[in-house]
Amino acid sequence: MDRMRRLRMNRTLRDMVRENHVRADDLIYPVFVTEGENICQPVESMPGICQYSLDRLPEELDRTVDAGIRGVLLFGIPDHKDETGSGAYDEEGIIPRAVRLIRERYEDLLVIADVCLCEYTSHGHCGLVKDGIILNDETLPLLAKAAVVYAEAGADIIAPSDMMDKRVAAIRQALDEKGFTDIPILSYAAKFASAYYGPFRDAAHSAPGFGDRKTYQMDPANGREALREVEQDLAEGADMIIAKPALAYMDVLKEIVNHFNVPVAAYNVSGEYAMVKAAAAKGWISEKKVVMENMTGLKRAGARMIITYHALDVAAWLREEEEC
Description:
Distance between the termini: 35 Å
Structural class: alpha/beta
Shape: globular
């Protein structure tokens, strides 16, 4: 007679038959880089996360590398914003300088450059604006220009997050024309207009100055539409896909994995991180157990990579388990 409990009777056996394992090299750590000097500014809504100036950035990157995390996703905070988001594609902007610093100091650290205008525009939207309308086609050359600037600085992967239609095609063409045919594109193809992004907007100073982003980010009610977005981005030249947010969209993540044979990353976003941190601070949950359950759930849903602000903690917990 079958007894499923037979395979659960001790830790060693459970580990042997476990279907999914979380590893440190599954993790990608988002990092906020800001202009200025001697800055390690905590983000109040994201306990444990800071904005780093370039001179302080190595402190966090040393911790990242020592933890066994092999990839970082960079977000820039400029000291100047304008209508066209020119800081996003300035060769001496905060992200190109951060990428060059990393390339000089950390040979094996994978650098993923987020491509979007929202941190750099005075209005806070991800594209150019005219008469209150976010312009799609007019934004594409600026995104492509930013992608090339980041590749020239030494970024390993370009990750467009703006959700403008046809931006992957524009970026792929621009990269290829400049000789960066081997630089992969990690597209935020399934990015929803979510309420879970609030703390990120605090950290990146990127909240929209008017309206919202529902005309270009996806409706949270639509799952099948995400498959269309992914299909289009892959057809335009994307090599990998991001599903964002993660926890409330595991069904979408699973559907993408089932339909497309490409690596898929789950972005465990700022609001998901902040909720766990807040509940743990109150003593209502075990932070380690809940975070590890979330990470395992994302792997079970098919995520090949997990972008998470918990990365340093997860890597430390995994190392503790190995040493037991």
